[in-house]
Amino acid sequence: MLNTKRGEKKQGYLNIVNSNEKIPVTEIYGYEGDYTVVILGGIHAGEYVGIEAAIKLANELEPNKITGRVIIVNPININGFYAKVQHINPIDNKNCNRAFPGDENGTLTDKIGYTLVRDVFSEADFVLDLHGGDLHEDLVPFAMYATNCSKEVSDIAKDAALSLNVKYVSGMDFPQTAIGMAGSMGIPSVISFVGGCGNVIKSHIDKYCMGVKSLLTSLGVYKGRKIKTYINEFQKLNIFYANNSGRWLPYVKPGQKVIRGQLIGEIKDFYDNILEQFYANDDAVVLCVINSLAINIGDSVYELDR
């Protein structure tokens, strides 16, 4: 991508098609091997731990420890980063992780998706998308691997996800996301989540980087140590959405086990009247809770494993 030669590490930019937008890129090319891992950060610009972990990895990874190539593209949603917004690109109010395969003649977010597919994913043997809890999200570390691909490809992604040093792992079939797009191209891919609530905590960033290096080691790309941790595999991520606007009052925390029928939270109006109540639909673990008091119709409010 940056015309990096073996044994080199380069920094530059990914130029977005039909725009003046450009995204920072770091490319590390080892002295041998060609297997290419693409690491994405900042698709959701308020997920700061993922952004900071990508920057730390770009600084720490060196050619003498890499077999093959690592390409780090981060932060993808620069406009959202400076605007300090949740999920969207403020230029066109689109979610960058729902914009694949993109459109070279669309709005900026569409062009970003198109350019990533054409210029980045086309060079990838594996895609890792670093996320975290957004400005309004609190979560327990977890990861998901693309399943909209062959079992062989999905199994490679799953094995890699299990080495990420997170507590929960599941499959995911969501083609408009970055890893869904990569999966549809036959590329093993994983999305991971660490941190949240706009916090930049060094221990979270360090743990994230250790997990990524463990994943790279499992793929044979990094000369390091594979971390062995107890992983809880779950079948499906269940996301629950608000049917009312008002005040969101959660009664659970990330990582908490809940039983079927347990009250998860309520939406109330400004007179404290209950507008909506949410109950666990099964015995499960709370993976993510929205911590914003303000909630709008259609907003997600919490996520459970199952």
Entry keywords:
single chain; 306 residues; alpha+beta; 20 strands
Give a concise summary:
With 306 residues, the protein is an alpha+beta fold. The chain has helices at residues 48-60, 78-83, 108-120, 151-161, 178-184, 202-218, and strands at 9-15, 22-29, 32-41, 67-73, 88-89, 94-95, 126-131, 137-139, 142-146, 168-172, 189-193, 232-233, 238-241, 246-250, 257-258, 263-268, 274-279, 284-290, 294-295, 300-304.
Would you give an account of this structure?
The protein has 306 residues and is α+β, with helices and mostly antiparallel strands. The chain contains six helices and 20 strands. It has helices spanning 48-60, 78-83, 108-120, 151-161, 178-184, 202-218, and strands spanning 9-15, 22-29, 32-41, 67-73, 88-89, 94-95, 126-131, 137-139, 142-146, 168-172, 189-193, 232-233, 238-241, 246-250, 257-258, 263-268, 274-279, 284-290, 294-295, 300-304. The strands form four sheets. The protein has a nine-stranded mixed β-sheet, sandwiched between helices. Strands 8, 13, 15, 18 and 20 form a five-stranded antiparallel β-sheet that branches. A four-stranded antiparallel β-sheet has the order 17-16-14-19, with no helix packed on it. Strand 9, helix 4 (151-161) and strand 10 form a beta-alpha-beta unit. Helix 1 (48-60) crosses helix 6. The longest helix is centred in the C-terminal third of the chain and has 17 residues, at 202-218. The protein starts with 8 loop residues before the first strand and ends with a strand.
